[in-house]
């Protein structure tokens, strides 16, 4: 017989709540924190499992591979960054000021920025991953691209920025510039400190858009 009338002295099964896997966001946030503190090269499934109270096998059950864990961590980080970007671009301020905010969010905080460490690692591995993973990386790229195109079009329509012809093509060139500078910042190359890079990008935008 089961139910409340069962022998209270019998051994009880492990608590479902205690053994339940932590929420996906908890695992991904822990992965990002580990990358920020120790670097991407020291992130292991076993170490992350200990951090969140799961075995490495349990993590692999949910994420299939370390590459998938890294990709989901990047997507989660992009979700947070995307909310910040949308809030910054929705402000009722001049387009040029919002463009500066876009650049500020795009460029890494400094060497070993965890978000950019993930980007560089995953793009480096992109030749070895499947089409679906590459498409997910491209979706992230396109979300930044669409926002930049919209800014350029809005700025030109309000006569706040110079008309650049094909806004999509010009946005591609700006993002190539941002990617190049950002890679240098993330790698900590001499002469590529974040403050210096932001000045150079700002000068380029002033020269081409005003």
Describe, in plain words, how this protein is organized in 3D.
The protein has helices spanning 16-19, 24-38, 45-52, 56-63, 66-89, 95-106, 114-125, 131-157, 167-187, 194-209. With 210 residues, it is an all-alpha fold. Helix 5 (66-89) crosses helix 7 and helix 5 (66-89) packs parallel to helix 8. Pfam families: TetR_C_6, TetR_N. Keywords: DNA-binding, Repressor, Transcription, Transcription regulation.
Outline the fold blueprint.
Elements: H1 16-19, H2 24-38, H3 45-52, H4 56-63, H5 66-89, H6 95-106, H7 114-125, H8 131-157, H9 167-187, H10 194-209
Helix pairs in contact: 2-3, 2-5, 3-4, 5-6, 5-7, 5-8, 6-8, 8-9
Strand segment count: 0
Helix-strand category: mainly alpha
Q: Could you describe the largest sheet, including whether it forms a barrel?
A: none
Strand content: under 5%
Report the C-alpha radius of gyration, rounded. 22 Å
> Any idea what the shape is?
elongated
Number of H- or I-type helical stretches: 10
List low-confidence stretches.
Answer: 1-19
Distance between the termini: 81 Å
Question: What would the average pLDDT be, to the nearest integer?
Answer: 87
Q: Portion of residues in helices?
A: over 70%
| Helix-strand topology string | HHHHHHHHHH
InterPro entries: BetI_C, Homeodomain-like_sf, HTH-type_TetR-like_transc_reg, HTH_TetR, Tet_transcr_reg_TetR-rel_C_sf
Organism: Streptomyces albidochromogenes
Domain HTH tetR-type: 21-81
DNA-binding region: 44-63
